[in-house]
């Protein structure tokens, strides 16, 4: 009897959860579906869900816009560059804080976190002015540096949390067995640290890819990434729904897939270890 | 245990990150403070000298200030209420035994990875457009007049869009917290005859307390500075001008740097008030 009730409950839970999950995912699904419609079918009344003539014309049209490739390339360079640069700077810092903690380590970590709280708009003009001064307004290098700086606290925190879980005894054991410092770093520490570095890389690439304050305000024709490209579709009024959908699908698909891989690290990464 | 040598090496390894962040924080902040005490109009005369606290007074007394504060509070409050309440319900649901839990989880967190300009435009055009949007079709189907979302219900629209983006975050964190709840405690309470509502109020909710606080604080910091969602939908029209957007307009659109900088200082103070509470919680966790 009790078993039957649980079974029924499980069926009800499953139905409800799948229904809600589908509802939440629907805007994304609808965007993907619309991207394969013709412009006329995209605004058909009543709306067509699946029974339309699937076409790749929108993708071709978006890709043919001579500059799409450049927006994509800018996104890759800005997100990738800022993440890699951030990791290079953060690894030694997180490393020393995790393995040689001092009296001030905790204060430094909290202070780093506090720089993340600085509202971007509060420093918009100074950054804008500095970019002009150094001649890097609307350049990829400026955004690589700025996005690196705004994500650096998260990168340090994530790496710190991972490194702290590497037991120090293992290092001592390696040293006892006569490993040199080079061997210790290369054969003992690196293999243990790589999963943590990889997931930090992933999450920060996603955050940088989607960043839409600095990328919108500091770029124009030359360095604009996909966030700005999509924003240029701001007022299609039913004219370009299918193309907007195709462009959107291409902008979010790679990140969606990367994101699903990083979902486990997301929680501790974005709460600075406050929820694990 | 660490030697003097390894201590100084550690300091050296930390230096680049610390110096960069220090520069990132101090240089622009000093400049914002500097400009906030000046009458500075790059397009109309440039630097027109020191004006004391004039900009601070003018920013607060301008007719746009209080509405922008109200708008900010409504958006932040609305999104927090929706994401936290729905997040708790969803987390509880996803924690129940079911088939395909991993798959549902993937569906639920997906919106978090969609870039803000995409989600804002997809919602604005394909759902909320009064002629071609799905909502218009849905309203017509039930014989109702389609809503002019972006003009008549502009704040509601923004709240819906931003909530959709942040619900996954709240759900995921609350789900993680709920999974650490002792199942036996709940089972024992159930056997003792405690109804589901009581089990929720006396066991689940207190257990979630800290996670809820963390969700509220982190989301508040991000929500105070939402920008793209307003930039590509209403452009600050129809009463959707938040404090962030007002400052953005003062600085880049009307090029009144002094006034905008004074506004920026207010925004920084506001964000720091929230930040202090978040840091306390995170700091406590570091000791553990």
Automatic annotation (TrEMBL), chain A:
The keyword NADP does not apply. Residues 72-262 form the ABC transmembrane type-1 domain. GO terms for cellular component: plasma membrane. Pfam families: BPD_transp_1 (PF00528). PROSITE patterns: ABC_TM1. It is found in: Cell membrane. It is a multi-pass membrane protein. It comes from the Bacteria. This is Sorbitol ABC transporter membrane protein /mannitol ABC transporter membrane protein. It comes from Sulfitobacter delicatus. The lineage of its organism: Bacteria, Pseudomonadati, Pseudomonadota, Alphaproteobacteria, Rhodobacterales.
TrEMBL record, chain B:
It is found in: Cell membrane. It comes from the Bacteria. This is Sorbitol ABC transporter membrane protein /mannitol ABC transporter membrane protein. InterPro entries: ABC_transporter_permease, MetI-like, MetI-like_sf. Residues 69-278 form the ABC transmembrane type-1 domain. One of its GO terms (biological process) is transmembrane transport. Keywords: Cell membrane, Membrane, Transmembrane, Transmembrane helix, Transport. It holds the Pfam family BPD_transp_1. Belongs to the binding-protein-dependent transport system permease family. The chain crosses the membrane at residues 12-37, 65-94, 106-123, 155-178, 208-237, 257-279. GO terms for cellular component: plasma membrane. CDD domains: TM_PBP2. It is a multi-pass membrane protein. The keyword Transmembrane helix applies.
């Amino acid at each position: 009897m009790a078993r039957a009730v649980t079974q029924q409950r499980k069926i009800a839970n499953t139905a409800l959860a799948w229904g809600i999950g589908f509802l939440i995912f629907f805007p994304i699904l609808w965007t993907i579906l619309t991207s394969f419609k013709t412009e006329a079918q995209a605004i058909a009344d009543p709306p067509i869900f699946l029974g339309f003539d699937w076409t790749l014309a929108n993708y071709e049209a978006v890709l043919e816009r001579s500059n799409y490739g450049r927006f994509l390339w800018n996104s890759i360079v800005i997100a990738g560059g800022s993440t890699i640069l951030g990791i290079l700077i953060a690894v030694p810092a997180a490393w020393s804080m995790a393995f040689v903690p001092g009296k001030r380590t905790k204060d430094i970590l909290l202070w780093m976190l506090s720089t993340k709280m600085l509202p971007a708009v509060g420093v918009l003009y100074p950054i804008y002015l500095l970019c002009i001064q150094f001649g890097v307004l609307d350049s990829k290098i400026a955004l690589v540096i700025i996005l690196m700086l705004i994500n650096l606290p998260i990168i340090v925190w994530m790496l710190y949390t991972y490194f702290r879980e590497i037991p120090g005894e293992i290092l001592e054991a390696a040293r006892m067995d006569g490993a040199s410092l080079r061997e210790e770093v290369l054969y003992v520490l690196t293999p243990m640290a790589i999963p943590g570095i990889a997931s930090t890389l992933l999450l920060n690439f996603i955050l940088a890819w989607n960043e839409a304050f600095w990328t919108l305000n500091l770029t124009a024709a030359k360095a604009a990434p996909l966030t700005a490209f999509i924003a240029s579709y701001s007022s299609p009024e039913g004219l370009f729904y299918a193309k907007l959908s195709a462009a959107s699908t291409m902008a979010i698909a790679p990140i969606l897939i990367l994101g699903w891989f990083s979902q486990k690290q997301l929680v501790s990464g974005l709460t600075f270890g406050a929820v694990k | 245990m660490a030697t003097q040598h390894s201590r100084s090496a550690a300091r050296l390894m930390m230096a680049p990150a610390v110096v960069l962040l220090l520069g990132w924080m101090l240089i622009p902040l000093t400049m914002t403070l500097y400009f906030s005490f000046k009458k500075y109009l790059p397009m109309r005369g440039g630097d027109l000298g020191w004006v004391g606290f004039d900009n601070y007074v003018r920013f607060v007394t301008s007719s746009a200030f209080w509405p922008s504060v109200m708008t900010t509070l409504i958006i932040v409050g609305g999104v927090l209420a929706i994401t936290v309440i729905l997040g708790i319900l969803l987390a509880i649901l996803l924690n129940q035994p079911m088939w395909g839990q991993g798959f549902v989880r993937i569906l639920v967190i997906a919106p978090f990875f969609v870039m803000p300009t995409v989600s804002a435009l997809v919602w604005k055009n394909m759902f909320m457009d009064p002629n071609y949007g799905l909502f218009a079709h849905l309203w017509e189907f039930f014989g109702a007049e389609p809503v002019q979302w972006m003009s008549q219900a502009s704040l509601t629209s923004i709240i819906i869009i931003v909530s959709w983006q942040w619900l996954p975050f709240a759900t995921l964190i609350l789900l993680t917290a709920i999974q650490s709840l002792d199942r036996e405690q709940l089972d024992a309470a159930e056997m003792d005859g405690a109804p589901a509502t009581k089990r929720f109020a006396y066991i689940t909710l207190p257990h979630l307390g800290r996670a809820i606080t963390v969700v509220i604080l982190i989301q508040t910091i991000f929500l105070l500075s939402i920008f793209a969602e307003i930039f590509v939908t209403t452009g600050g029209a129809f009463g959707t001008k938040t404090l962030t957007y007002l400052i953005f307009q003062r600085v880049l659109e009307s090029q009144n740097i002094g006034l905008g900088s004074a506004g920026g200082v207010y925004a920084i103070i506001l964000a720091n008030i929230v930040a202090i509470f978040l840091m306390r919680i995170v700091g406590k966790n570091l000791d553990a």
